[in-house]
Amino acid sequence: MRSGKVVRMSSKGGATEPVSGLVEVHRAQDQAEALVIKGLLEAHGIACALRTHIVQSVHPFTVADLGAVQILVTLRDQAEAARLLASCRQSP
After folding, report:
1. Dihedral sign, CA of 30, 31, 32, 38?
2. In what order do the strands lie in the sheet with 69-74?
């Protein structure tokens, strides 16, 4: 039986300290937004991980920042991921 590793989420906005070489590039308001961003990053060859405080299958709703999801990438991919996300925000 595999056991998972609990990774604590930062209560502050913005980037968090590296966890196992991963850094936050975006904090989505819910799982749907996080999955869209994850798909975008992976389509451009950037592997990422999602991290949240709640288990979406148990609590499939969000209230304020309760359902916030961090999108994490490696330190090596951080600049490229940030550039890609910034260019998407500027698109009309």
Report:
1. positive
2. 22-28, 69-74, 48-52
Closest CA to 50 of 62, 33, 38: 38
Say how far apart CA 92 and CA 85 lie, in whole Å. 14
| Digitized pLDDT (tens) for each residue of the chain, 92 residues in all | 444 444 555 555 444 444 578 999 999 988 889 999 999 999 999 999 998 876 555 555 556 666 788 999 999 999 999 999 999 887 66
Domains and CATH numbers, the chain: 22-90 (3.30.70)
